[in-house]
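Researcher: Here's a chain I'd like modeled. Treat it as a single chain, no partners, no ligands.
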Amino acid sequence: MTKARKPAEHRPEQPLAEEDHLAKARAAVVAAALPHVAFDGWSDRTLAAAVEDAGVDPGLARLAFPRGGVDLALAFHDQKDAELAADLGSADLLGLRFRDRVAYAVMRRLELLAGEREAVRRAAALFALPTHAADGARAIWRTADTIWKALGDDSHDFSWYSKRATLSAVWSSALLYWLGDDSPGASATREFVARRIDNVMQVEGVKARIRANPLAAALLKGPQAILDRVRAPGDSARSEMPGFLRHRH
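Model: Modeled as a single isolated chain. Structure tokens:
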């Protein structure tokens, strides 16, 4: 005779960690804010309306968005970066040239914004202000970092910075071009991105020829030795934080 199975014990759900509560609150408030942004921008007024619409506790909202509307805009930006990372993680890009993978990632990030063009336009205007320009620059850098990580970049030296700086320039110019693009399927933006990446690849080609030139290599030996000591941020550092110099022993 088989023994009767004991009924499964009911385990109460574990309380969410504070950061999980904040993440859920941010997602809910960002979603509720989008209908208001077209009228009031990424402002404290929009934040207050979104908090009420989402039914989020005002105290929790103050923790999630301590600087008000600007943190709301950054949360929207970071949400789209997270969606891009998930999308690229499941995309089959192995058959593409690397430049085409980068172009795909940039265009995919824009496609994720397709229904929120006015919200993006308002965010661009906000981050163009001197008081928020640094926030905007860090947000652009995080997008570039998201793309490089998703494409498998494992650099830890100065190239970690040069790759992200170059892609930040491509991404920011593509975003501004896209905001004014009314071509079908953003085809003009797609061509613009391809041209920008081609320009970058031409520069990389010039750099490779310089490194292959014995005279140029000798002249650059000193500066290159300094650059070789630069290291990317550690895993525990925020992606927009500077790295460090490796000290010789």
